[in-house]
User: Fold this.
Amino acid sequence: MSQFKPFHLAFPIRDIAETRAFYGDLLGCEIGRSTDKWIDFNFFGHQLSAHIKPEELALAHTNTVDGKYVPVRHFGAILPWGEWHELADKLKANGIEFVIEPYIRFQGEVGEQATMFFLDPCGNALEFKSFQDETQIFAK
Assistant:
């Protein structure tokens, strides 16, 4: 993909320390600016701002995709194939409970991808995916 343009996403959390440990220590995101009310992360080249606002944490609503219940409200990153597998192994080794276990979605079809879903400590759903063929990211 050419001309990478980072995005910014702000989302609610309930605790700075647990969020710092999850995104910083476990996922390896560089920590940016922070106060006692919010913290920024370099999320695979994108800016995440986690704001303490526990009353905004949503209940997990789902839609069915490829026979799985996918959390509607989620965010994540598309990683290179090898990095995706390394992350899946790291998450398993750290006892992360998956909403959807790592697997290949749409196998043999347009848009074939590796995907996994899990929750951060505040219940925000994350999806990490990978494509062996990046031209399939926006394929119809």
In short: The two ends are 17 Å apart (CA to CA). Residues 50 and 100 are 23 Å apart (CA to CA). The longest strand covers residues 98-105. The mean pLDDT is 92.
